[in-house]
């Protein structure tokens, strides 16, 4: 049996057009490719320090 | 595909042919991103919008620069009624690739229609208000608000779901089912929709325990075979007596039952339908009224702007064609020029016209050509006119009418600023009339304009005498 109060908690206010700018600025755009490039650069730096 | 290190085009090798960087893993990430994009595209094609959103978001987690995936994600959001989320994805897409990007078209289409954008924003605000009503336990208001939202944006899935939840809460299962089926038509695989639908369908299936089968008991009838025929003789059944009165009574009872059934079953349903139609009409009129109000406000603003423009233009036109307008002054100047050319000796008539022009206009505001013609005519008649006024001034001075003398000498000095005698007697006239301040000022003018002359020396003496007396 569905509980109305519990289900209501799953609904959240929709973003208004005025809030679009904040939503765009706050979006985390880091992707796997960024992480890979960062890891490669860090490993290269460590290798340079050892040598 | 481009190298993450140097930006060169990558080949089929696992290393960059330009800088030598190992790109095997990088390529795999790009392939995975493309795979998720393809999956999202397939899901969007069969209207599994929730699944498409998940796949496309995965694709963007692997490669944020996958422009096709981002644009498609925006489209899917738009189809689900999530306009702001769609707009956000398209704006990011346009920033990542400013040229040759279809997102540019999508944004332009949205932004070019201001009333549509405003209507979308109103929809979102109403949805948020409905959610507030739900939390405040004002469920009836929430239902009305959500109906308005869905009349403006019928594809808003979350609004459909919330409305269905409200119907479920008030045990209006058929209405809830109708809303949920609309959700399924838009997005076929939304888990929340399917969960609600399952609950509603469970409630709509008739309970078998409440309707026991009405089987006739075996012992209600006696069966026996006679030759090839089976005879069934019911027990406890009496043949009805054929009586006219009982028939009429039965018909009467039937009519009463029929009327009662009509009153208790059919009438409420009809009233309910009428109420529903009235509510729908109110909701529709209300939404139309909102749209008209927005339109009216736009038109009022436009009208105010046009009225301001009209007033400014009317003032400008009046400045050209009014009694003291530019055109009238130009006519007067041309008339003065005509007089001057036809009767060069009649300096008084030309002078009076020039004086009338000087009174009406601010010379600095007039065109350069206007000022030039005015000065030319003034220079032509100035000398003669100055002499005339000087003579009249002398006459007045001699008869000790110093006010008239001041007026004439002022005009003589105005029309010929080099007329030193006019200046001198103007100073004297002031002095004689007791206006020492203007007298000193006029003597100062003489000292400055005609230095090292007899007039200047006499003016200096007069000035010194006035100052000594004070």
Describe the structure.
- The complex is a heterodimer of chains A (51) and B (470).
- Chain A is an all-alpha fold and 51 residues long.
- Chain A has three helices and no strands.
- Chain A has one domain (4-50).
- The longest helix of chain A is centred in the last third of the chain and has 19 residues, at 32-50.
- In chain A, 4% of the residues are buried.
- By secondary structure, chain B is mostly helical.
- Among the domains of chain B are: 24-112, Serine Threonine Protein Phosphatase 5, Tetratricopeptide repeat (Alpha Horseshoe), CATH 1.25.40.10; 121-205, Serine Threonine Protein Phosphatase 5, Tetratricopeptide repeat, CATH 1.25.40.10; 326-469, Tetratricopeptide repeat domain (Serine Threonine Protein Phosphatase 5, Tetratricopeptide repeat), CATH 1.25.40.
- Chain B has 18 helices and two strands.
- A two-stranded antiparallel sheet of chain B has the order 1-2.
- In chain B, helix 2 runs antiparallel to helix 3.
- The two termini of chain B are 99 Å apart.
- The A-B interface holds A 1-2, 4, 7-8, 10-20, 23-24, 27, 29-34, 36-37, 40 and B 4-5, 21-22, 25-26, 29-30, 32-33, 60-65, 82-85, 87-88, 91-92, 117, 120-121, 124-125, 127-128, 131, 134-135, 158, 161-162, 165, 168-169, 192, 195-196, 199.
What are the key terms here?
heterodimer; A: 51 residues; mainly alpha; elongated; B: 470 residues; Serine Threonine Protein Phosphatase 5, Tetratricopeptide repeat; two-stranded antiparallel sheet; 2 strands; 74% helix
How many whole angstroms does the radius of gyration of chain A measure? 22 Å
What amount of the residues of chain B lies in strands? under 5%
What is the makeup of the main sheet of chain B?
2 strands, antiparallel
How many structurally independent domains of chain A? Answer: 1
Q: How many E strands of chain B?
A: 2
Kindly report how far apart the N and C termini of chain B lie: 99 Å
- List the secondary-structure elements of chain A in sequence, H or E: HHH
Oligomer: heterodimer
CATH class division of the domain at 326-469 in chain B: Mainly Alpha
Low-confidence stretches of chain B: none
Radius of gyration of chain B: 51 Å
